[in-house]
Amino acid sequence: MNSLTYREIRDQYNRLQKTEAYMNENMEKIMHRYGSHPAIVYIGCGSSYSLAKSMATGTMMHLNKKSAAIPGGDIMLRPEAYRDLVDGALVVALSRSGSTSEVLLACDGLKKAGARYTLLSFSCRTGKELASMSDLALEMPWAFDESVCQTSTVTNLYFSGMLLIAELSQNKTLVRALSEMVERGGGFIAENERSFAEIARIDWGQGICLGDAELCGICEEGALTFKEICRLPSNYYNLLDSRHGPMTIIGGDNLVIAAVSDVENTYERDLIRDIRDQNCTLVTISDLPYEMDGVVNFCIGERVPYPVLGMPFINAAQMITCYKAQQRGVNPDQPDGLDPWITL
């Protein structure tokens, strides 16, 4: 396979090594910004908004800070409604291009509405509008995806957010596990590539991604890869919450990718068994091996904190949908109706 999307998926762990070094070099001044605010509001659009959800959840769980994730377009349309929420907060804006119109207009609208806030931005191009508006701008151009669909960019931004939260919470176990995943991630993709391709060749027509907690946004982004890369419908749900309605639509036409937090947890195993019995194609992502007939498992091979699973999860979704695009005769580099970034 020779698409640009495929090459960027395969190269993302080389880029992550640069991102890890960059984050470590700047960690002290970033932590100072985070630590001095009682609340953190994350803003993004599309994939960046999904990642904002993972970061906001991680902030609440690990840092015990009030936090929210809000689409840039929502704030852009009604900044006055969000003024009091943002006033006094740290606003973290995420943008691959550093030029996403809704994010820029949202930040400007909040200022005009009278909100006082500090702006920290993550982007993957240098010297763009978002950086010039920011009190602190983190620019990682090596993580920028030239293809329309975000793949490497997504993983790099997710890793950056989780590493920062881990450092702020002084969770050395999570810091170490994230770093080790950067070292082993390229091997994870290479070792499982044949299996990813085999799953893509199975006759399924829509995707469902399941995951919880800090993985909520990265799993939602996994669902987006189906829509963007191989042009098939998809949905994201929390794991056990899929019993509350979504289970009625799970069947033989689905590929379900589920992040498993504990391979021994009875409630999780019962759910996975029930999904399997719907005769769908079922993939689990776990730290330790997950053994169940009729389930394809991809695992890291040792116990790791749950947020680390976000990286192999998105890798599996990216690779499977990229191979599915090839199988369907769809060009993953040129999705109809989608631009690399949206300019209003």
The shape, in one word, is globular
Series of secondary-structure elements, N-terminal to C-terminal: HEHEHHEHEHEHHEHEEHEEH
Beta-strand proportion? 15-25%
Mean pLDDT, all residues: 95
Look at the helices and sheets and give the structural class: alpha/beta
Quick overview:
This protein is α/β, with parallel strands linked by helices and 344 residues long.
3D structure, described in words:
50% of the residues are buried. By secondary structure, this protein is of the alpha/beta class. The mean pLDDT is 95.
Q: Any chance you could write out the topology, listing elements then pairs?
A:
Blueprint: H1 4-35, E1 39-44, H2 47-63, E2 66-71, H3 72-77, H4 79-86, E3 90-95, H5 101-112, E4 118-123, H6 129-133, E5 136-139, H7 152-168, H8 172-201, E6 206-210, H9 216-229, E7 234-237, E8 254-259, H10 266-276, E9 281-286, E10 296-299, H11 310-328
Parallel strand pairs: 1-2, 1-3, 3-4, 4-5, 6-7, 6-8, 8-9, 9-10
Helix pairs in contact: 1-7, 1-8, 2-7, 2-9, 4-5, 7-8, 8-11, 9-11
